[in-house]
Amino acid sequence: HHTVRRHTPRSLAALDTPIVSLTAYTTPMARLLDPHCDLLLVGDSLGMVVYGMESTLAVSVDMMIAHGQAVVRGSQKACVAVDMPFGSYQESPQQAFRVAADIMARTGAGCVKLEGGQEMAPTIEFLVQRGIPVIGHIGLKPQAVHAHGGFRTIGRGSEAEQVMADALAVEKAGAFAVVIESTMEPLSRAITEALGIMTIGIGASPQCDGQILVAEDMLGLFPDFTPRFVRKFANLGQEVDRAVAEYAQAVRTRTFPGPAECVGMPKAD
Ligand code: KIV
Ligand code: NA
After folding, report:
1. Would residue 4 count as lying in a domain?
2. What residues are labeled active site?
3. Does 77 map to a domain?
4. Residue of the nearest CA to atom 1 in ligand 1?
């Protein structure tokens, strides 16, 4: 047994290859993703992907902590980031610090992520100055889905200036990285050029300093809704369907369990 050195916000920034990142919510999935990923995000998307919610708005801090613990247990090498859920940080920098400190202390995660640009800059600064590494999240902010008027591409026309201002504010506040979600490609590219900190794209640009996807989306395990920016690298949902159909058939025909799966079963003659 040898100790694997886990990525930190600092070591991520020192990588000379694009940051490879996926979401993870559970120990078994974290084990599968960890060898290949630099950063694992315990995203509040788990509300939709794991709990079947319509949006991320009802996700609680307790849910994020339970799944954060599961992902830290299942990973060795990747830096683990935990999303701050809706309502747990928007009220004040003090509220955000209490929740972020709780998440960090109880999960062992390396950093937190929160949604917002200029309006969240004082909060990001408050956390960073007190020792909590922060990833920002701009462009499409799923916790603001109702304000956005749905899940859509952000940054067409005059909206682009707003998103660029958000990016600059998040960097100035001290975030070590920023997720850019569902934005026009030239805007994501311009933000990546303008910022010194890492940009991690999802529906953004190949020029970002890294990419992130929801693991279930790219594995074909979440059929409910697939945004244009998802590439399906596998169709595991189909594979699960095939396996479960075979199992059902085996149970109904009494061919499962067989002799190898039972103890002391007399041989058929
Ligand atoms: O919650 C999430 O999964 C996210 C990523 C898609 C960036 O915030
Ligand atoms: Na999220």
Report:
1. no
2. 181
3. yes
4. 43
Q: Which domain range does residue 247 map to?
A: 236-269
Q: Using DSSP bridges, classify how beta strands 177-181 and 198-202 pair: parallel, antiparallel or unpaired.
A: parallel
> Quick one: 185 and 60 in the same domain?
yes
Distance CA 161, CA 155 (A): 8
Average pLDDT rounded to a whole number, residues 76-93: 98
- CB 148: neighbour CB atoms within 10 A? 15
pLDDT reading at 171 higher than 70: yes
Whether residue 78 is found in the same domain as residue 108: yes
Res. 1: pLDDT tops 90: no
pLDDT band, residue 4 (cuts 50/70/90):
confident
**Residue 120 token pair:** 């969240």
Span 8-43, pLDDT tens digits:
999 999 999 999 999 999 999 999 999 999 999 999
Average pLDDT over residues 46-60: 97
Distance from residue 12's CA to the centre of ligand 2 (Å): 20
Query: For residue 217, what is the domain's CATH number?
Result: 3.20.20.60
Is 191 within 8 Å of 137 (Cβ atoms)? Answer: no
**Ligand 1: does its nearest atom lie under 6 Å from the Cβ of 140?**
no
